[in-house]
Amino acid sequence: MAQGDRTMEMKERGGSIGVLVDNGSTAGIKTMSPPDPVVEEQQESKNCCQCILEEFWGKRFFLYMLIISIAVAAAYPPAGRKKGPLLPPITVSWVAVVLIFFITGLKLKSAELTKAAAYWRLNVYVICFTYIFIPSTVYILTSILRQTAYNSDIIDGMVVMSCLPTTISMCVILTKTGSGNEAASVFNATVSNFLGIFLTPALLLLLLGQSGSVSIVNIIYKLAARVVAPVAFGQFLRWLLPSIIPWVSRNGKALKRLSEILLLFIVWATFSETFYQGVDAKPEEFGILLAMLIPLHCFYLLFCFTTARISCLGYTRPDIVAVLFCSTQKTVALGIPLISAMYEDSDSIGILSVPLLIYHPMQLVIGSLLVGKLSQWATEDTENETPGEQDIPEGPVSMAWGEAKATQEA
After folding, report:
1. Distance separating alpha carbons of residues 166 and 330, to the nearest angstrom
2. Contact call for residues 337 and 97 (beta carbons, < 8 A)
3. Other CB atoms closer than 10 Å to residue 83's CB: what's the count?
4. Please, where are the H alpha helices in 108-181?
């Protein structure tokens, strides 16, 4: 051991540190050089680049690339026009849209839809708010706007936006961050988007059937061929080849990123055609649209938060947080492909997409500002009650919440 100590001392005098292993034998001694400032600076630079890459390619990829896609479309519109070299009537209207809904069908866990029955009170509220209350209020607002000189295509785009289902992942993330009922938000997002494949086109035909620029028969054909059939085929593959399910689970992030890239391709081609034909809207009209959408979304949040607290509904505070985000969100993942499938022959398809493309990042920003307070509010409710009362309260919605928590704890 003395020999090992002497070796250690010699190493330290030589400007390096000796590390003794193997019970004191000199063969086990390793040396570590003192930190090099140049290496540390390079490592910090590398970490900084990784953070920037993670921010750009990870969390905010779609938002940043959405802005870039529209900017590129505005800079050189001929590249993505309908009669351009990339053949958007085929590559966008068929290939991209069909692939998106095929991936949706491939990832849709239809077996889990039966579990949503346990959340029937919460689901009924969210579905009624999503597909009845929001479309009704927006339709009333747009009916008033039609009496003015405001752009009719933007008005139609507001109606299209109002008929869409909730977001697929954003509502779940915000619910989880806000200490809400995450299990309920997952089930409800699945059910809402599944129903949206059928309810959204039906609502659009009901509300825009007379003013829309496309025929009903043509819309039904396009939806059947580009939306329903790919989703059904994806579900059929899950049933026919059960071995594909683990592969889908392992590659879930890659499939999501592929869907986002396809969505961005649709947005780029759509706005390329719009800029090529000429934007039939004034800049101030987009400002007015933003000024309407912000208070409108805040009104939905306030109305939902107030009505969901009615005692007869039996919602806990985590339930209310889930209801709040699931009811007021609108998805761009389903909205853009549906708009592309239903209104590809319209010269104003780009303007129809604008309300949704403004509403999507806006709801994320407002939701992110609220999650801190909501988390504190939901947690205070848990602390003020006994564990049994809050974890597994009375009612079907809360029973399912308790089961989900018990599963997570196990």
Report:
1. 5
2. yes
3. 10
4. 120-128, 134-145, 152-162, 170-177
Distance between CA atoms of 99 and 107, rounded to whole angstroms?
12
CB 320 within 8 A of CB 123: no
How far is residue 182 CA from its own chain's centroid? 15
| Distance (Å) of CA 227 to CA 1, 105, 113, 132, 263 | 76, 10, 19, 22, 14
Of 266, 281, 53, 265, nearest to 151 by C-alpha is 281
Bridge partners of 32, per DSSP, are 17
- Model confidence over 217-274: pLDDT tens digits? 776 787 788 888 888 899 899 999 999 999 999 998 899 889 889 888 988 988 888 7
Structure tokens at 365: 């920003």
313's CB contacts (< 8 A; 6+ apart) are 121, 125
3-class DSSP assignment, residue 108: coil
Q: What distance in Å separates the CA atoms of residue 43 and residue 262, rounded to the nearest whole number?
A: 35
- Residue 14 CB neighbour total at 10 angstroms: 10
**pLDDT digit string (tens) for 175-189?**
888 888 887 887 888
Backbone torsions φ then ψ of 17, nearest 5 degrees: -110, 130
Q: Rounded to an integer, what distance in angstroms lies between the CA atom of residue 390 and that of residue 203?
A: 38
Residues 6+ apart with CB under 8 A from 272: 73, 76, 77, 78, 79, 80, 81, 84, 88
Do β-strands 30-32 and 17-19 pair in parallel, antiparallel, or remain unpaired? antiparallel
**Beta carbons of 307 and 121 less than 8 angstroms apart:** no
For residues 90 and 98, give the distance between their C-alpha atoms in angstroms, rounded to a whole number: 11
For the chain, the C-alpha Rg in angstroms (whole number) is: 27
Strand partners, 19: 30
For residue 30, the one-letter residue type is K
Coil, helix or strand for 224? helix
Q: Could you tell me if 321 and 301 are in contact, meaning their C-beta atoms sit under 8 angstroms apart?
A: no
Written as six digits, the tokens of 228 are 């329903």
Question: Maximum Cα–Cα distance for the chain, whole Å?
Answer: 96
What pTM, to 2 d.p., does this model score? 0.69
